[in-house]
């Protein structure tokens, strides 16, 4: 058709859409190639003042290459903006395809990166807001001063990245000494990137800014709020703990106000969750206690049937059997204690009921782990084949470690171990500025310190004590297997 009537390619339909734009949308490389090679005056118009290159960005690098190589119209397409002021580079930056971004950058002058849409956003703002770190890096490499651009609200690309919770993009500015000045830049609302990271519930961004960026945490926005004040608005418990622990670890402070006017963080959701979970955990604890009690009455190796020791355990002198008795007793006692704590905590309905709930969780975990260890000890006590109990050891230990890793990941704040330890270290300060911050954190966020301490205790107990317990039981089981083999 274009060979016979090439003028048709310059016409548009009633929606102001050209054949070239429709060919791009249909993903027909052959149609696009036919139009661009045979129709020099073809139209590239599309809806909302877009051109064919806007659409080609989402169709692949080959389509983009064909349009950019289209002479003489190709390079000009890359600089045209649609009705909202967005250029094809804006579109490509939002999609995150680095090859397409590089292709467009090679066809336009570096100043094209400065182009802003109707909201004042440059392509770098768009890439940062979407978290496309490689695209943002390519844009800054093509035009280094683009990092200084601000949108209509006065925000830099770091503000955009912090609002989206994209820590990798924020680290681009942290790694470059020449960009450290924009880390503390305030937008028209007085918010720094740290303010926006806290408001977006992005503790990883806040940690990067505080730990490596060394930003100021005492800056107040136009409403007189510091980043620590914004953390109080978090409705998620884990977000609140992560943000408060991160900010307090680096000495952040709230705005000056009378201490009797400070309101504690609303822990109503925690109380409701505790009440819903306590019944289920109590049932689990009772079941564990029942299993432990039954195991004590059905001991491995059975009982003596003759002589003066009728009714006595056959393996009572074996170290591995003693390990079984100790672990089974520990499982029984801790599960019963968990039941008592859960029932008492739910009945009391006091503000500190979460403390008994936390203690009950530790007891329940300890009883479950003890029951698993007791099972392995019983298996090792009655098995003479070393390969059997060795395989059982690695299966149980591996599954248990995997389970603990998953659980720890689910209940852990989204901050590093270094920050949590740094927070505890700062909370130990009794004098001077650290003492003031400690009192304020305890008054407004009383559950943060307890959660961090219990979390670290959980990790220490189940990543150090549990493997050590497995090793001890495994060694006794290995020795018992060798003794049984010698007797046989």
Automatic annotation (TrEMBL):
<dbReference type="InterPro" id="IPR002110">
    <property type="entry name" value="Ankyrin_rpt"/>
</dbReference>
<feature type="transmembrane region" description="Helical">
    <location>
        <begin position="357"/>
        <end position="379"/>
    </location>
</feature>
<feature type="transmembrane region" description="Helical">
    <location>
        <begin position="320"/>
        <end position="345"/>
    </location>
</feature>
<dbReference type="InterPro" id="IPR026961">
    <property type="entry name" value="PGG_dom"/>
</dbReference>
<feature type="transmembrane region" description="Helical">
    <location>
        <begin position="456"/>
        <end position="474"/>
    </location>
</feature>
<keyword id="KW-0812">Transmembrane</keyword>
<feature type="repeat" description="ANK">
    <location>
        <begin position="84"/>
        <end position="106"/>
    </location>
</feature>
<feature type="domain" description="PGG">
    <location>
        <begin position="272"/>
        <end position="381"/>
    </location>
</feature>
<feature type="transmembrane region" description="Helical">
    <location>
        <begin position="281"/>
        <end position="299"/>
    </location>
</feature>
<dbReference type="GO" id="GO:0016020">
    <property type="term" value="C:membrane"/>
</dbReference>
<dbReference type="Pfam" id="PF12796">
    <property type="entry name" value="Ank_2"/>
</dbReference>
<dbReference type="Pfam" id="PF13962">
    <property type="entry name" value="PGG"/>
</dbReference>
<dbReference type="Pfam" id="PF13857">
    <property type="entry name" value="Ank_5"/>
</dbReference>
<feature type="transmembrane region" description="Helical">
    <location>
        <begin position="391"/>
        <end position="411"/>
    </location>
</feature>
<keyword id="KW-0040">ANK repeat</keyword>
<keyword id="KW-0677">Repeat</keyword>
<protein>
    <recommendedName>
        <fullName>PGG domain-containing protein</fullName>
    </recommendedName>
</protein>
<keyword id="KW-0472">Membrane</keyword>
<dbReference type="InterPro" id="IPR036770">
    <property type="entry name" value="Ankyrin_rpt-contain_sf"/>
</dbReference>
<keyword id="KW-1133">Transmembrane helix</keyword>
């Amino acid at each position: 058709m274009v060979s016979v009537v090439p003028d048709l390619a310059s016409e548009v339909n009633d929606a102001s859409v050209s054949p070239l734009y429709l060919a791009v949308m249909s993903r027909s490389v052959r149609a696009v190639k036919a139009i661009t090679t045979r129709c020099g005056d073809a139209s590239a118009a599309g809806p909302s003042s877009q051109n064919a290159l806007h659409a080609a960005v989402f169709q692949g690098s080959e389509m983009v290459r064909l349009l950019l190589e289209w002479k003489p119209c190709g390079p000009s397409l890359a600089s045209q903006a649609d009705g909202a002021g967005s250029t094809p580079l804006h579109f490509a930056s939002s999609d995150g395809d680095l090859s397409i971004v590089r292709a467009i950058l090679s066809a336009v002058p570096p100043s094209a990166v400065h182009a802003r849409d109707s909201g004042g956003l440059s392509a770098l703002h768009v890439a940062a807001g979407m978290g496309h770190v490689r695209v943002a890096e390519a844009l800054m490499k093509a035009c280094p001063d683009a990092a200084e651009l601000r949108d209509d609200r006065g925000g830099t690309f770091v503000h955009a990245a912090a609002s989206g919770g994209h820590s990798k993009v924020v680290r681009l500015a942290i790694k470059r000494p020449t960009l450290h000045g924009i880390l503390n830049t305030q937008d028209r609302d007085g918010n720094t990137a740290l303010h926006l990271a806290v408001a977006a519930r992005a503790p990883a961004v806040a940690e990067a800014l505080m730990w490596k960026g060394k930003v100021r945490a005492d800056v107040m926005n136009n409403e007189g709020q510091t980043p620590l004040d914004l953390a109080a608005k978090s409705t998620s418990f884990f977000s609140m703990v992560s943000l408060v622990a991160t900010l307090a670890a680096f000495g952040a402070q709230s705005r000056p106000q009378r201490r009797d006017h400070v309101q504690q963080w609303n822990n109503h959701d925690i109380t409701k969750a505790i009440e819903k979970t306590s019944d289920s955990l109590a049932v689990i604890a009772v079941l564990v206690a029942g299993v432990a009690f039954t195991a004590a009455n059905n001991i491995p190796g059975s009982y003596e049937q003759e002589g003066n020791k009728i009714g006595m355990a056959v393996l009572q002198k074996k170290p591995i059997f003693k390990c079984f008795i100790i672990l089974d007793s520990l499982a029984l006692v801790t599960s019963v204690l968990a039941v008592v704590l859960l029932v008492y905590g739910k009945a009391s309905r006091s503000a500190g009921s979460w403390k008994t709930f936390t203690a009950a969780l530790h007891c329940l975990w300890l009883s479950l782990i003890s029951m698993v260890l007791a099972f392995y000890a019983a298996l090792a006590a009655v098995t003479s084949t070393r390969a059997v109990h060795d395989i059982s050891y690695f299966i149980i230990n591996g599954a248990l470690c995997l389970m603990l890793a998953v659980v720890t990941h689910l209940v852990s704040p989204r901050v590093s171990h270094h920050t949590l330890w740094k927070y505890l270290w700062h909370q130990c300060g009794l004098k001077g500025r650290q003492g003031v911050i400690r009192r304020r954190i305890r008054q407004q966020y009383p559950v943060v310190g307890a959660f961090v301490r219990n979390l670290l205790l959980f990790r220490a107990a189940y990543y150090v004590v549990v493997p050590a317990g497995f090793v001890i039981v495994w060694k006794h089981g290995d020795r018992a297997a060798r003794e049984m083999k010698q007797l046989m």
